[in-house]
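pipeline/complex-builder :: batch 7 item 3
reading input block
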Amino acid sequence: MKKIILSLFLISNLYAELVLEITESSENPYKIAVHDFEGAGNLSKIISKVIKDDLLRTGEFNVLGSEDLLSNINDIEKINFKNYRLLGIDFILLGTVKIEDKINITVSYDIYDAVKEKKVRSSKVYGIPNKTRQLAHYVSDGVYEEITDLRGIASTKILYVNEIKARSRQVFKLMLSDSDGMNEQTLLSSDSPIISPTWSPDSQNVAYVSFETGMAKVFIQNIATGSRKIALENNYQISSPSFSPDGKYLSLTLYQDGNAEIYILDLSNKNLTRLTNHYSIDTESSWSPDGKKILFTSGRSGSPQLYEIDLLKFNSKPKRLTFDGNYNAKASYLPNNEGIIFVHRTGSEFQIALKYFNENFSRPLTQSRLDESPCISPNGNVIVYAIKDDEQGLLAGVTLSGAKFKLPASSGEVREPAWSGFLR
Amino acid sequence: MKKLVFNKNIVFFSFVLFVVSCSTTNVTEEAVYDSVVSSVEVSVQDNAVSASEEYSSKPIMANAVVYFDFDKYSLTSKSIQTLRSIVEVMNDNTDIEISISGHADERGTREYNLALGQRRGEAVRDYLMLNGISKKRISVKSFGEEYPLVKGSNEASWAKNRRAEIN
């Protein structure tokens, strides 16, 4: 088994460290040669590094850097494709970084197919100096989409909760970072717990549960302006928000009669529609990508299990989806609607599992003891989830091709990740 | 293929100038989009006070903690003994109103644990009501696994955190 550990230090965030630990990669990864980008001195080194790490983290690439290659390319016209093929290389990435002026940077890159011996892509990305990493992520996504025909997720963002113990008090923060855990920004800082953050489909707003009023309440906050409002004013506890794919509705868990039941809130007129009605717990609702179904956790069978409600059929009975394992909860659909990911327990270990609708068993994807809160990338290829490592909460990732990695913990505990939609 | 996003708060517009697939090479140009992020700070004079802080403020106390088994909200015989004394105190002091907060250990999902904590609180309220205490004197809420009494990923800590606090 191959084990590559890479550490990456960021200029603007000194204590953040990305640990990329690829324990397995896909069976037949693309092999790509990434030559250090030319120009702009140190900046091009940073950009090259970010691109290589992005490609590695997909689990679908075997990356060779300049240090692994025999020579640097000085004359693009004279690429000796044969030499690359001898190393088993499928693609070659070459790029140039150009600082136009104080506020403009241009990265140009070309992708060559070593087998067909031709240039397959020639691209330019324009950015600004303090968003260098995002610029590099755009290049990675361009490379990824050119080679795999799938949209890349290096330029997407992740939302999560960070708990920090400062002196005698605790601080709970709702954080936003790049998909590699870098470039952290605070959306909300509070002295009360925050749970269940989630994105609006346009990735402009977030919803979450805050205990700041003394009980669980759902808030909606605009990322750019910071303006926030309570989703529904009443005296009950409200939790577990999930936006419908069209952004018009928010499914919620309401404790109106003491018990947790799922409702759908029409965001335009605040009308509530009750979805579940059972004396046991019903919570953790999540919409199917087509908006026609809602997945949720229910204790109606005696242990937490996953159920699905068809929204198009009036009064339809929830359909049970999980039968193996003694705890199946917090599920969400794969973006292609072919299955679900969720927290799964067999014995006493909580793991992240995947179940395809055309299979009658769950596939565990992780191996630690207290894994929770799985969220899937918008292209459906990577799952980020929360783990307990030596009693410390942090985020880890697993790709469907089997690569595993950990995201940096700046300080304190990190948990409850939620993946944005495509931003590029 | 790409969506044009207009927002006054956005530093850069995301746009693709052109995507041309000339016979062999795919040529693209794009600008990095990154929205401004505003940070909000909330500091409440802690409404969600932990049990210990509220104890001292009440002249006559009806407070206790009862414990539960994993993923269960049924009362144990030991819990019932504790609750009997609460019933007595509340019967003797009819002006006492109590608030019950249900809690869970760290295992399992946060939202399910929030619902479970609520069930634990409700179980305590149901017992008190069965023993003649008016529903009006009891409020119930849940904090799920968010306010553990004891830190640590082991059975001893978990057992102390699966609780309902009465105060």
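note: The CA atoms of residues 73 and 121 of chain B lie 8 Å apart.
queue -> next item
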